[in-house]
Known about the structure:
The complex is a heterodimer. Chain A is of the alpha+beta class. Helix content of chain A is about 30%, strand content about 35%. The radius of gyration of chain A is 17 Å and the shape is globular. In chain B, about 20% of the residues lie in helices and about 45% in strands. The interface of A and B includes residues 57, 62, 80 and 89 of A.
Amino acid sequence: YFEAILKKLMGVTCVVSWAPPAGKTWSQASDLLRQRLELLGAKKTGTWSVDCEAYQLQSGSKVLYLVQSSEHPNSCYGILDSGTCITTDTSFEQIMAKLGNYYQPRRGAHTEAKGQRYVLGDNVVKIGAVTVGQATKGLVVEVEFVPSVDPSYCWKGVTSFVRRLLDGSVEIEQQPPVPLDRDGLFKPIDTSKQYVAVFSELRSGKTGT
Amino acid sequence: RSSAIIMNQRSEYKTQATVQRERLDRLLHRLRGICDRAADGGTPFREHELILSMSGSGVSPVAVRIRRSLNNEGAPWHLRYYGPADTGVKSPTILVRNCIELTTKDALPEFLQEMGFNLQHEHVSEGWLFLKGPFKVCVFKVSKMPMRGDTTKTEDILTCFVDVTTTAVAGVGQDAVVHEMNSLSEQLKPLVVLTKPDSGVIS
Lengths: 209, 203
């Protein structure tokens, strides 16, 4: 019952890429994290995925990212490279298909992250491999503190948990990724924006350390 | 996901007419009699509508229509894209077009303009909405907006319109939808004679 409630609520999330420790493959690093979580008492609750398609404006440099997540299967997040974004429904993908003469999917930029989902106390932890085409580009870890949507209240705690889980080997923003011109509360699109940033990082060869 | 996209294809069926002012009250009275739960006189609405298009040299422009209720603070934006007229449906009075709809509570006009869409036209529509089964019947007037984005200062255009629309899964049961829509149109004669809108204009 508690897990069902956690699945429905949406809290503050921190998404980071993680480079495997020296001498370990992506798969071994992922297993290491899963074992660590299970030793802490986390329960596996299923799988998850986040899908990101990048569309390039043909007559300019503008890029629009379309993100869809298994956590919100009826939603679609449109994020421009300027940061302007909207939350809408999955019909947006059909609209982008109609704009094919103006916006085209960037070659080699379709990125997917998928993996295992765990619940540990008030946190939902997702570990997954990031792939671009057939190539694995890295690991992504998302920690969601479910009881709060106010990052000013819990961002330090969430990021501290992430650092402890990943042996301190990650760079995380000091300030939560919520625009100042909004109400300051966390929304699912703020998670999607973090995924876009992490995917860009991994595609360009940075590993988040 | 591509099979889900195909299954979600929808078509809009539309027929419309202008309404002479002297017949407006009788039309509303008749709609109250034949439509569902219309004893309260239909649902009043007031909406801000914008038509935006993206164009480029050598390629066909793509237009979308977005609208939002002005009666409810925080109402979401609705976007609709229309494809070309479906020539497979033979009806002299009903326009059938593939359509894609989406909804958002975020600042859609600003997002679309940043994507590269340009504002072609905006206006305020105000009137009454009736429902009859799957059909929406809107009786409304259109007001111009002399100041861009300012929905508080409008100028009425003297014509009233009536639209009858419905959407259905594309390619399924078209004959039945056309038959039912024609039947509804007959019930509104001779007050209004519904005809096929011009598909070249997003009306």
